[in-house]
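Researcher: We plan to redesign the surface later, but first we want a full-length starting point. Tokens attached.
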């Protein structure tokens, strides 16, 4: 009737409001993922243990709810920021694995009846005195047990490298020698069964830093999964690794992605272990994740499955491998959420995690050298995949190092 009187067509009916339930569930899952990931990453074995354990359970519940939540939010465009938040948190662990649930067990010294017997250790057994006397005793006992018959077939020949790897396990799981040996043997078995065959890369990692383009299917990764394997050093001396997650083009399958990424992670770990031995300091990476360009194109079952597998594998089999994780170009709501949460987070968490928006350069300048910032702000994806080699030359070692990178 109104149309006949006014001569105008009636306005189309307004779309129904988005259903509140899926948005509320997605919001709760996002918050649970953010908080749980932060605490689990640095949740240690003392007073933070109880809270970290509770949040680890929240992580598991959120994972169970993740698939229906994603299906519901994909169907509701107004929920896309929440969807991006879920993916941002999931992507955060793609290389550095924030979900080390095994690390949440309280540390305890092995009772004498459970300790492994071995000759008296010396500081040199851990590559120059990186371990405390208690840690050194456990490392030496486990090394002695591993050398007994039958030793794992892929046990490193260099005893100092074995000691560094065991020190990482001890720092993550405590000083129960038998538990440390079980974790380490499982890690060796997983590497034997899942890593691609790469003897040439393993040999090169003993003497120099490699680049992502040298990994299996590295040239494919230049255009699909840009990672800077070694982009110089932080001011504290940690090697810097950069992942441009927002620039990733998820493949339709993971036949190329898994060999590339697993080889990269393992080769990086080998290099960290070797430099730990030569420098006398436990080397850990400074992980930087760039979310610029992150969108719903990353939300595929292939990507989610890959993220889950890599997070679990890295957390379980490569413990104590990073010193700090920084996210840049995070969506504004994610940055604000972390700013609110950080007011109640322990100092140990805030020291190891930073979530920054587009205005990140001033804060990164406090951690990184100008030479390293080049890889963050200036290098193209192709150049990043060839770091540390810039214009045909490698970056120098940090000040005070006795060996140069070749």
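Model: Full-length starting sequence:
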């Amino acid at each position: 009737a109104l149309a006949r009187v006014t001569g105008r067509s009636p306005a189309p009916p307004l779309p129904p409001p988005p259903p509140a339930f899926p948005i509320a569930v997605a919001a709760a899952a996002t918050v649970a993922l953010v908080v749980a990931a932060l605490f689990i990453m640095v949740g240690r074995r003392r007073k933070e243990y109880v809270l970290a354990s509770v949040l680890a359970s929240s992580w598991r519940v959120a994972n169970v709810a993740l698939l229906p939540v994603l299906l519901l939010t994909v169907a509701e465009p107004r929920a896309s920021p929440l969807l991006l938040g879920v993916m941002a948190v999931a992507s955060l662990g793609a290389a550095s694995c924030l979900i080390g649930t095994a690390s949440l067990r309280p540390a305890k010294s092995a009772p004498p009846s459970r300790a492994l017997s071995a000759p008296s250790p010396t500081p040199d057994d851990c590559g120059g005195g990186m371990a405390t006397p208690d840690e050194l005793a456990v490392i030496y006992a486990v090394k002695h047990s591993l050398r007994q018959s039958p030793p794992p077939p892929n046990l490193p020949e260099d005893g100092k490298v074995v000691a560094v790897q065991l020190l990482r396990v001890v720092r993550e799981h405590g000083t129960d020698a038998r538990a440390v040996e079980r974790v380490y043997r499982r890690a060796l078995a997983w590497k034997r069964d899942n890593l691609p065959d790469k003897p040439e890369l393993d040999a090169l990692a003993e003497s120099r830093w490699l680049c992502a383009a040298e990994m299996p299917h590295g040239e494919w990764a230049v255009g699909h999964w840009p990672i800077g394997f070694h982009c110089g050093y932080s001011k504290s001396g940690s090697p810097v690794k950069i992942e441009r997650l927002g620039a990733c083009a998820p493949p339709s399958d993971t036949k190329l992605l898994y060999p590339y990424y697993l080889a990269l992670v393992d080769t990086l770990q080998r290099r960290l272990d070797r430099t730990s031995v030569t420098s006398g300091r436990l080397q850990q990476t400074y992980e930087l994740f760039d979310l610029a360009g992150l969108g719903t194109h990353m939300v595929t079952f292939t990507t989610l499955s890959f993220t889950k597998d890599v997070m679990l594998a890295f957390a379980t089999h490569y413990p104590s491998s990073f010193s700090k994780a920084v996210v840049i170009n995070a969506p504004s709501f994610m940055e604000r959420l972390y700013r609110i949460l950080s007011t109640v987070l322990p100092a140990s968490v805030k020291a190891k995690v930073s979530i920054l928006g587009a205005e990140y350069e001033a804060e990164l300048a406090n951690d990184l050298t100008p030479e390293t910032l080049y890889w963050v702000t200036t290098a193209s994806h192709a150049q990043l995949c060839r770091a540390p080699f810039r214009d045909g030359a490698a970056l120098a070692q940090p000040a005070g190092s006795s060996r140069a990178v070749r």
